[in-house]
Design brief:
257 residues, alpha/beta, D-Maltodextrin-Binding Protein, domain 2, 2 domains, five-stranded mixed β-sheet, three-stranded parallel β-sheet, 42% helix, globular, binds arginine, Solute-binding_3/MltF_N, Iontro_rcpt_C, SBP_3_CS, ligand-gated monoatomic ion channel activity, palmitate
Length: 257
C-alpha cells in the first residue's frame, strides 16, 4: 500500500515537473523567435525582388529592404517565400501568407480579396520589343504574339487592348521567361512595368521599350488580409520612411545604380 502511494506521488510530481518544464521551454521559444511575418513574393522582378544567382540564393531587392525595415520597426521577423505571382493574393486571403509584397499594383479585383497599404511606388507600363520589329505602339500589335506575366495587371492590360486590336495574348509565370521568349522571337512583344524592364533593356541592346500607360494608372502597395489592423502600423512606418529619408535611400540604392 505504501509502495503504491509512493508510486502515485512520484508520478504526480513527475507529471507536474514535466509539464512545467514544457511550458517554460515554449515561452522561451516564443520570446527568442519573436513574431514572424510570412511574406510571399515572386522573386522575378528586378530590382524589387529577385535572386542574384551568381552571388547567392537569397531574395533581395527594394521590396525586401522595405519589408525588413517595416518589420524591424514593428518588432517582427520576416520569412520570405517565393511563389508564382498569380498565387500571392489568394494566399494572403486564405491565410497561408501574412503579407504579399511583389510590386503588386492596387486594382479593383484584388481589393475584393485583400486590403492594401498606402501606395509606395508608381510605374509606367512598357511594350518591350525587338528593335528591328518596328513595333512602337499597341496598334502595331495586330496579328502578333504578346506576352505578359500570369495574373498581373499587364495581363489585364493585354486583355483590354485585345478588345480593339487583334493579337494573341500569352502568359508565363516568370518574367525572365517572357524576356527569353521575346529574344528568341517566340513572342513579338512583352508588356512589363518600366522599372522592372530597366535591367533587361540595359543588358540586351537589341530590345527597346515604349510607354503604353502612364504612372498614375497603377501604384504598388503591400497586400494584407482584409481588415488586418497591421495595415495602420505598416502605413505609419511607410510615412515615417518617406519623412526621414529612409525611403529615398532605398530608391537610390536600387534604382540609381
Ligand atoms: N505590378 C504588376 C501587378 O501588380 C506586376 C507585378 C509583378 N511582380 C512580380 N514580382 N513579378 O500585376
Amino acid at each position: 500500500m505504501k509502495k503504491l502511494l509512493m508510486l502515485v506521488v512520484v508520478s504526480i510530481v513527475f507529471v507536474v515537473v514535466a509539464t512545467g518544464c514544457g511550458k517554460k521551454e515554449e515561452a522561451a521559444g516564443n520570446a527568442k523567435d519573436g513574431k514572424v511575418l510570412t511574406v510571399g513574393t515572386s522573386a522575378d522582378f528586378q530590382p524589387f525582388e529577385y535572386i542574384d544567382t551568381a552571388k547567392s540564393d537569397e531574395i533581395i531587392g527594394f521590396d525586401v529592404d522595405l519589408i525588413n525595415h517595416i518589420a524591424k520597426e514593428l518588432g517582427y521577423k520576416v520569412q520570405m517565400k517565393d511563389m508564382p505571382f498569380e498565387s500571392l493574393v489568394t494566399s494572403v486571403k486564405s491565410g497561408t501568407l501574412d503579407v504579399a509584397l511583389a510590386g503588386i499594383s492596387v486594382d479593383e479585383e484584388r481589393l475584393k480579396e485583400v486590403d492594401f497599404t498606402d501606395v509606395y511606388f508608381h510605374a509606367n507600363n512598357l511594350l518591350i520589343v525587338n528593335k528591328e520589329s518596328g513595333i512602337k505602339k499597341p496598334e502595331d500589335l495586330k496579328g502578333k504574339k504578346v506576352g505578359a506575366q500570369t495574373g498581373s495587371v499587364q495581363e489585364t492590360k493585354g486583355k483590354e487592348l485585345k478588345e480593339t486590336i487583334d493579337f494573341t495574348l500569352e502568359t508565363r509565370d516568370r518574367v525572365p521567361d517572357l524576356i527569353q521568349e521575346l529574344k528568341s522571337d517566340r513572342l513579338d512583344a512583352v508588356i512589363l512595368e518600366e522599372v522592372a524592364s530597366g535591367g533587361y533593356l540595359k543588358k540586351f541592346a537589341e530590345l527597346e521599350g515604349n510607354i503604353i500607360s502612364e504612372k498614375d494608372e497603377s501604384g504598388f502597395a503591400i497586400a494584407l488580409p482584409k481588415g488586418d489592423d497591421k495595415i495602420q502600423e505598416f502605413n505609419r512606418v511607410l510615412k515615417k520612411m518617406k519623412e526621414d529619408g529612409t525611403y529615398d535611400k532605398l530608391v537610390e540604392k536600387w534604382f540609381n545604380s
